[in-house]
Amino acid sequence: MSPTTAAPPEILIPSLPNDVALQCLARVPRQYHPVLAAVSKPIRSLLSSPEFFAVRSSLNSTELLLYLRIQRSCDDPDGWFTVYGRPNQNDNIKSSIILAPVPGVPDEQLYLSNYGSVGPKIYVLGGLTGCGFSTEVWAFDCRFHTWERGPSLPTARMRVAKTVAFDGKIYVVGWSAAVEESWIDVFDTVSERWEALASPKLGDRSKEVVGCAIRGGKVCVWSEFEELKFDPATKTWEVFRSGVGSGLCWTTQICEVNGVLYCAENHKGMIKGFDERIGVWKVVEIVNNCGLLPDHSWIPWMVNAGGRLVMMGWRELQDQTVNSELDDEMGIWCAEIEVKKDGDWNFQGEVLWSEMVASMSRRLMDKVLCSCACFPVSL
């Protein structure tokens, strides 16, 4: 019997050694990866291999890649997508982005979940199911497009709570299913363990958390009437005053970009910026809107993507009247905005791109359970 011989490695690029071809392919910008994946099976396999990501990292070729989660209604399975810039623009194609579907959360239907992204992974934390509030945790590895179940939340929570990631940990703050349970839980993504932090003394534990962000290495939490800072180094709380939380509610999305806090509120199309040196919220003036941004949105989502704002939200596609029919179309839009300050500390935003990424009949849409979210991941 002849000895078994290993199959020769598949050729990536003819006339080039595979190690040289790998160095070339690892330098190709992300927006061309869908095209590369269609060239050959060996290249398609390479693009989702540990070796490929290791080489991209060593070459400092990693780029921010947006992932979207879209849930149209309580009866509709959630959709997950990767956003690529369209490599070649022409007059026949109006869209400036390409949405590539990726696998959704397996064997689980979750609504209004909390989210956190650390490194190459996106974490889905709790939410609503048909049986009530969930403690489920799922982790999506954006490199290989695989899901794995994580350690359950110590406290059942949904999107009324807020999350923020810092130093490899995800802080889940605020509302829980029972008022006597922990007000803040922390997940260490390295050890994969949860820790319930000692809660600060609150005037009313039932007050909604309207915002959470990392400021100066501390976890800042804004509720309706209180502002608190948690120091991870000393594990202590302190009260502070900034005025950030005034007038906001749980549906508000807050994120920080270059030292400035930005927020987007439910039913409103406007974006506001808060610089502590001024101490007040100021509306961001969109200087090139031209209909690219809606005048209002349902349950908006906002993130910092490499120093720019990325927003998502449901909007009406037709002008509505008091006697409008319920089957008017609704859609979900996504936009990238670059914000700058002028000499008078006013904020001006330039829309880099804005796209409708989903739509459905308003009659079939459940505005309570429908949701959207976006996550920037460096790959």
Task: Kindly describe this structure.
By secondary structure, the protein is mostly beta strands. The chain has helices at residues 18-25, 33-37, 41-46, 50-58; strands at 64-71, 79-85, 97-102, 114-118, 121-129, 132-141, 146-149, 162-166, 169-173, 184-188, 193-196, 209-215, 218-223, 227-231, 236-239, 253-257, 260-264, 271-274, 281-286, 298-305, 308-316, 329-341, 347-361, 371-378. The strands form five sheets. An eight-stranded mixed β-sheet has the order 16-17-18-19-23-22-21-20, with no helix packed on it. Strands 3-2-1-24 form a four-stranded antiparallel β-sheet, with no helix packed on it. It starts with 17 loop residues before the first helix and ends with a strand. Residues 320-326 have low confidence and may be disordered.
Key terms:
single chain; 379 residues; eight-stranded mixed sheet; four-stranded antiparallel sheet; 4 helices; globular
Largest sheet: 8 strands, mixed
Number of helices: 4
Gap between N and C termini: 47 Å
Instruction: Quickly give the structural class.
Output: mainly beta
Look at the structure and give the mean pLDDT. 82
Measured by DSSP, the beta-strand proportion falls in 35-45%
Principal-axes geometry comes out as globular
What is the element layout, followed by pairings?
Elements: H1 18-25, H2 33-37, H3 41-46, H4 50-58, E1 64-71, E2 79-85, E3 97-102, E4 114-118, E5 121-129, E6 132-141, E7 146-149, E8 162-166, E9 169-173, E10 184-188, E11 193-196, E12 209-215, E13 218-223, E14 227-231, E15 236-239, E16 253-257, E17 260-264, E18 271-274, E19 281-286, E20 298-305, E21 308-316, E22 329-341, E23 347-361, E24 371-378
Parallel strand pairs: 19-23
Antiparallel strand pairs: 1-2, 1-24, 2-3, 4-5, 5-6, 6-7, 8-9, 9-10, 10-11, 12-13, 13-14, 14-15, 16-17, 17-18, 18-19, 20-21, 21-22, 22-23
